[in-house]
Amino acid sequence: MATIKDVAKKAGVSVATVSRAINDKGYVHEDTRKLIDEAIRELNYKPNEVARSLFNKKSRLIGLILPDIRNPFFPELARGVEDEMQAHGFRLIIGNADEQLDKEIDYIETFKLNNVIGLISASTNAVLSQYKSLSFPLVLLDRTSEEHPSVHADGYAGGRLAARELVNRGSSRITLLKGPVEFQTARDRFKGAVDELYSANVEFDVMTTASFAFQEAEYWAKELFEKYPDTDGVIASNDVVAAAIIHEAHRVGKKMPEELQIIGFDDIPFSQFLYPALSTIRQPAYDMGREAAKLLIKQINGEKLESKRIQLPVQFIERQTTRKGDHHD
Amino acid sequence: MATIKDVAKKAGVSVATVSRAINDKGYVHEDTRKLIDEAIRELNYKPNEVARSLFNKKSRLIGLILPDIRNPFFPELARGVEDEMQAHGFRLIIGNADEQLDKEIDYIETFKLNNVIGLISASTNAVLSQYKSLSFPLVLLDRTSEEHPSVHADGYAGGRLAARELVNRGSSRITLLKGPVEFQTARDRFKGAVDELYSANVEFDVMTTASFAFQEAEYWAKELFEKYPDTDGVIASNDVVAAAIIHEAHRVGKKMPEELQIIGFDDIPFSQFLYPALSTIRQPAYDMGREAAKLLIKQINGEKLESKRIQLPVQFIERQTTRKGDHHD
DNA sequence: TTGAAAGCGCTACCAT
DNA sequence: ATGGTAGCGCTTTCAA
């Protein structure tokens, strides 16, 4: 690979001048610049990012930590981040924490040691001391905390919405699945649903699903019908769990949506292909990713953030696991 | 962040000695080492990867290029790669090419400029000249070429198997979906199915699905039933497409598996949750990822590769979109 | 407008 | 067994 020295030699100038030329800093004569551009092109020169990074203590790399790359919600977030970053000349490197604390810590460490210029984390353990001692900006995605800027969907409204739709469509013995308690987002959804159910004066049971992951979703589904065989409406903790419940409902012979209504959360691409197609509360994952990226870029550029906590609206997506409602809103 | 200088000062030795100590190279007295370890711990020193990388022209980073992070097959590959790499002290950075050539090129460039020590690519355009001029080893994953070591599943056998199962279970007007022609893997599957169908002397139509992606899957499904309304057996190009077909089949009122059998390819986690649960040809994605990682690590360590093309077996997963067969194998 | 030189943090060579 | 030092490729003073 050609270095800046090669370029300098070829153009007959010093490396300092070349450096100024590439970075558009300080003076460089028009003619000299031409010479340099020419040399760069001929040698197909690309500045060595590592050397730059060593000097600047900043690369052009952005780290993104995902808690579980297998849950389709997160790849969608990643795409939003990616597209926005790409448009601004930053490069994204993704780390999959696999819901394991040590992996997450490893990735943070890797990102630090490789001089990322910023970090977006959609992962579990934002409370971690690891996140405090960062020398670069951090944005929380699909998570919140007091200390860091964040982007998340309105889980509380989502919870209320899910409950309201279910009630309006006639479920009266509702089972509310509560996601992992560590997640603020999961708690928000839960609280929203509880509040709505209380105020509508509808009976409901609560079951905790201690994870959002695939492997366990089936287990939660089985447990659900064992514990609450009479339930006629389920508010699932996310679409993956909802998918498992639909599957199990078929197995135990429940008719959907006649005998059992189900509402998911997320609206992952697969939900439309389920049978019956899953009604769900949609989080605008792609947009959330983009917003998080924008927030991070602002910080990198040293701009003031007008809002540190960006909350995006959710939306009820009506499909086939809910009945036609008589409501109007 | 503490540097090697700080450690040296604190331990009262030279940086050279510290360097030798951390890297276990050359002599360093037991007592000195203790001093150094002590200093490292007190300062919480971590060697700066960027500086190391600048000198060595090698980082500990492995690049992984995925063609489409939204197709659940690829995250599964990624996890295999990740786990194996982690066990060997390498760090994985994932790039999502999003099936776009320029993004793929960008990622290769980023990886180069950040001195990755090796690259695994599951992406489209392995033919690219970009892949030729690499200064670090490359392993192709879910792809093959003559020039580079690769790991892939036995698509040909998979195609045969899919066709055989469908025929044995009584489909006689089969529609064979052919994936994107650029992919050797897609061509292999196709060829396998064609060969089997010919030798079984069964009628079949061919429809090309020019992508594996979600957004288009629904379109292929609709096209399928418009063009071939009488088909009673579909060999889908992958599970995502199969999911869309199941969905569409419900819409047009086809009973599965009685009137229509479907076989997918991949066995992504979601397939078990479809209704009817999808029968499919399973690729051992996680293992493929691990094997690719092993292959890359061997190359990095300069070991000879006994086999450059690793082919993993596929397997028929019987679920509900195929009828009970009368066959025995 | 340009260039010489120092230095980012680390490793490796060569002395000692 | 240890240390001084050059140099990886780049940017940035500072002088010219």
TrEMBL record, chains A, B:
Keywords: DNA-binding, Repressor, Transcription, Transcription regulation. It comes from Mesobacillus campisalis. The lineage of its organism: Bacteria, Bacillati, Bacillota, Bacilli, Bacillales. It comes from the Bacteria. Residues 2-56 form the HTH lacI-type domain. The keyword Repressor applies. It holds the Pfam family LacI. PANTHER family: LACI-RELATED TRANSCRIPTIONAL REPRESSOR, RIBOSE OPERON REPRESSOR. Signal peptide: none annotated. GO terms for molecular function: DNA-binding transcription factor activity; transcription cis-regulatory region binding. This is LacI family transcriptional regulator. InterPro entries: HTH_LacI, LacI/GalR-like_sensor, Lambda_DNA-bd_dom_sf, Peripla_BP_I.
